[in-house]
Design goal:
The protein is 0% helix and 50% strand. It is mainly β. Strands 2, 4, 5, 6, 9, 10 and 11 form a 7-stranded mixed beta sheet that branches.
Length: 123
């Protein structure tokens, strides 16, 4: 059974850094890719980036060079390291598992979701 639980969200100042974690039970070793998404109220959930089982990562242009996705299979944990944070990075952040194909950055392409963790970036 897949269970995803995000943590680490908080308020941070512009230019700061933050690392989010996602405890991903039932996922590591299953061959599933894992992803991070974010969502503002009233807006569509958007893909931040994802990591394949072999470790290859893909990022949205808006976060490329600032965010890094990694995983620790021994701890069954997915991470999102966020640097040089901007006000527009403020959102609820979700982790997702099991890429079903087509477009990785679309919510409908992923089979399992966590409950989210809030990140607020302010000046």
């Amino acid at each position: 059974q897949v269970q995803l639980v995000e943590s680490g969200g908080c308020s941070v100042q512009v230019g700061g850094s933050l690392t989010l974690s996602c405890s991903a039970s039932g996922v590591m070793g299953s061959g599933y890719s894992l992803a991070w998404f974010r969502q503002l109220p009233g807006k569509e959930r958007e893909g931040v980036g994802y990591i394949q089982p072999g470790g290859r990562t893909v990022y949205a242009d808006s976060v490329k060079g600032r965010f890094t996705i990694s995983q620790d299979t021994a701890k069954n944990t997915l991470y999102l390291q966020m640097n040089s944070l901007r006000p527009e990075d403020t959102a609820m952040y979700y982790c997702a598992a099991h890429f079903k194909g087509i477009s990785w950055f679309k919510q409908t392409s992923w089979g399992f979701w966590g409950q989210g963790t809030q990140v607020t970036v302010s000046s």
